[in-house]
Design brief:
The structure holds two protein chains of two kinds. Chain A is 53% helix and 15% strand. By secondary structure, chain A is an alpha+beta fold. Chain A has a four-stranded mixed beta sheet with strand order 1-4-5-8. In chain A, strand 9 (270-271) and strand 10 form a beta hairpin. In chain B, strands 1, 6, 7, 8, 9, 10, 11, 12, 13, 14, 15, 16 and 17 form a 13-stranded mixed beta sheet that branches. In chain B, strand 3 and strand 4 form a beta hairpin. In chain B, helix 2 (68-75) runs antiparallel to helix 5 and helix 3 crosses helix 4. Chain B is globular and about 65 Å long. Classes of the chains: A alpha+beta, B alpha/beta. The interface between A and B is medium-sized, with 20 and 14 residues.
């Protein structure tokens, strides 16, 4: 058993941290205040190759595996949750679906520019009537000769307002349901029939775009079917498994930042004649945060290692997402408590961290859905099939 | 064109705590980073490469136990990196011996057109390596450059280098061009573009100046680059992964093949360590300008008496 990172992953972390601290962190506050997506910075991130971190080098990626991707997400999550969200939707689910089930031609055409950050991806699954109940989507695709005609819409699509390429799930055979009736498509947003209906004004992750998308007689060539017709739901679930793991990594970074803020404050802020660090109530909070963070770190990188070595990991990815988001929420809550009233002011990054942390318990499958995934897997091992 | 960039490592200051009372430096996290001035030298080399096309070869400024900084240089765009393996005493700042090793390495490489290195080190404050190397090779040297450019002199098809060095434009006494053949130091009053010929040393003595002067030199030359002069580019992700994955990305040369044992005899020994004296706290003057001037003058007078 060896828990050390390889030299290339250590070097990668140093590179990402340098970029995150110099290029991302200075923008974080202003992105949040101005509700602005930092497209210029995302493009520079792409130029370094980091947006292709886990994709093969033959398709413009770095080939640093899932471990490398988790390092990227942890370091971005440490300085800016909005940026981690943009990158997570781009790599972790949008481009990931093409990486997992695209054919060679699709990968050359779409994955390569996505890996280089020349184009930005989004993942089109959620609909107004199908959130946690993802199999209940209504967007329809009808075959017409060599094309498919898409009609419907998606909501809460991260990167939706500025994505160039969206992997969209649509019903191709209403009689078959999730298994067999749903197909994944690669959609270019420049095509006629695509429009952005509105952008959400959110409590947190305000530096990222969350948009409602509309498809009106959107013509998609048959060659843009991702995977096989009728197997889209499986493609999307596989992509979501990857996304969940790396969302855990982003939460790890956020929790780590909370701990760093709390420690910094506790060693300088004086009350009752001593620094807060000397108060046992504060020490206990710091100790609890640090312990949960280390447990999460072990979980995240163990699952990344499982992905890189080809082992099944779906249930553990759900744990990463669920536990990670809750550790991050608890950590920022304690950091806020340690900062007292000042933590609530906009002079400190704590209030932004607090607002940003909450979404991780909701998106990419609510934590309730993650618990269903985990429990279903556990009962299946004991011969019990859980009914939805 | 061949550029050699000499780079070293330093303990990441973010991972250490200086405890004056205990008289010790506590290392919480033993992580090394590129010397800040060497970062700038590497960027200067890569910019010349981008502009004029050159082969950039990275060499270490001391005999490092690992080749990490050299791999970093490769990841950021250097073409070759050579790890010099051997031992010079126990200290990381044996610049005299390192100069011999590096000069021999330059010879073995078949010479070079330009050698760039950091003007000073963050940990030991060493500024000697560049000047010593220029001495050993008999090349002109320009110290503390903020910008380095290369251009082809059209008629002779020779390369010429321009370095921008910060200087006090008002009192150019701060800028010294020493021409030792004529045993003369020029105090530069008139010209802002200077020529630095073989055997010349050009250096900006003070860094707090308000202006810059441009210095020219024929190649080959040695230029040391000021810390903070240039922002080092990010590595290319694909290159980074491949460079760290490949066992043989960095070449290994045994120092014993380059110089004889006598050349490596350490000249320094460490007898102890001491912190620099603690800085006195300043005093904020108050009152009318006249009163403040009076108080300042009085303080200065007392100091001078002391």
């Amino acid at each position: 058993m060896d828990f050390t990172f390889s030299p290339e992953h250590t070097a990668l972390r140093r590179m990402v941290r340098e970029f995150a601290e110099n290029e991302v962190a200075p923008l974080a506050m202003q992105m949040d205040r101005q509700h602005r997506v930092p497209l210029e910075m995302i493009r520079r991130l792409g130029q370094t190759g980091l947006l292709g971190v886990c994709f093969p080098q033959e398709y413009g990626g770095m080939g640093a595996g899932e471990t490398g991707y988790c390092i990227l997400m942890e370091e971005l999550g440490r300085v800016c949750t909005s940026t981690a969200t943009i990158v997570g939707a781009h790599i972790g689910i949008g481009a990931m679906a093409i990486h997992l089930d695209g054919n060679d031609e699709q990968k050359r055409k779409y994955l390569t520019p996505l890996a280089r950050g020349e184009k930005i991806a989004a993942f089109g699954l959620t609909e107004s009537g199908a959130g946690s109940d993802a199999a209940n989507i209504r967007t329809r695709a009808v075959r017409e000769g060599d094309s498919w005609i898409l009609d419907g819409g998606k909501v809460f699509i991260t990167n939706g307002g500025h994505a160039d390429i969206i992997t969209v799930m649509a019903v191709t055979d209403p009689s078959l349901g999730a298994r067999g009736g749903i197909t994944a498509f690669i959609v270019e947003t420049a095509w006629e029939g695509f429009s952005v209906a509105r952008e959400e004004d959110k409590m947190g992750i305000r530096g990222s775009s969350t948009a409602e998308l509309v498809f009106e007689e959107l013509r998609v060539p048959h060659e843009n079917v991702l995977g096989k017709v009728g197997e889209g739901f499986i493609t999307f679930m596989k992509a979501l498994d990857m996304g969940r793991l790396t969302l855990g990594a982003a939460s790890l970074g956020g929790a780590q930042a909370s701990l760093e803020w709390a420690v910094r404050w506790a060693r300088t802020r004086r009350q009752f004649g001593v620094e807060l660090a000397h108060k046992q109530s504060v020490q206990w909070m710091i100790a609890n945060m640090a312990t949960e963070i280390e447990a999460l770190r072990s979980l995240v990188y163990r699952v990344a290692w499982m992905v890189d070595t080809g082992q099944p990991f779906g249930q553990l990815a759900a744990m990463c997402k669920m536990y990670g988001s809750e550790v991050a929420s608890r950590a920022i809550d304690m950091a806020l408590q340690i900062h007292g009233g000042l933590g609530l002011t906009r002079d400190f990054p704590i209030e932004r961290g607090f607002r940003d942390a909450r979404i991780a318990e909701i998106y990419e499958g609510t934590n309730e859905v993650q618990r269903i995934v985990i429990a279903t897997n556990i009962f299946r091992e004991h011969g019990v099939r859980i009914r939805p | 064109m061949r550029i050699i960039v000499v780079i070293g490592r330093v303990l990441d200051p973010a991972g250490i705590v200086v405890n004056r009372r205990a008289g010790r430096i506590f290392v919480n996290r033993e992580e090394y980073i590129l010397q800040p001035a060497d970062r700038c030298a590497l960027e200067a080399a890569l910019r010349v490469k981008d502009a004029a096309g050159a082969e950039v070869i990275a060499l270490p400024r001391s005999l490092l136990p690992d080749d990490d900084v050299l791999r970093q240089a490769l990841a950021r765009g250097a073409d070759r990196a050579i790890h010099l393996v051997g031992q010079v005493g126990n200290l990381p700042y044996e610049d005299a011996a390192m100069t011999r090793v590096l000069a021999a390495a330059v010879q073995r490489l078949g010479g070079a057109d330009l050698i760039l290195t950091g003007a000073t080190t963050l940990d030991t404050g060493q500024s000697q390596l560049g000047p010593r190397l220029a001495e050993a090779l008999g090349w002109p040297q320009i110290l503390g450059a903020w910008q380095v450019t290369i251009q082809r002199v059209s008629e002779s098809a020779k390369w010429m280098m321009q370095a921008v060095v910060m200087a006090q434009r008002a009192t150019l006494k701060d800028v010294i061009l020493s021409d030792r053949r004529e045993r003369r130091i020029s105090w530069l009053h008139e010209r802002e573009t200077l020529r630095c010929a073989q055997g010349d040393i050009f250096g900006a003595v003070r860094r707090d100046g308000a202006g810059y002067v441009t210095v020219e030199a024929d190649l080959p030359a040695v230029v040391t680059v000021a810390p903070g002069a240039l922002k080092l580019r990010y590595p290319d992700g694909v290159r980074l992964i491949n460079v760290y994955r490949a066992g043989d990305a960095v070449e290994r040369w045994e120092v014993s093949d380059l110089v004889d044992e006598a050349a490596l005899r350490p000249q320094l020994e460490k007898r102890g360590q001491e912190f620099p004296p603690e800085r006195e706290r300043g005093v904020r003057l108050s009152g009318t300008p006249e009163e403040m001037a009076q108080a300042l003058a009085e303080t200065l007078r007392q100091r001078m008496r002391r």
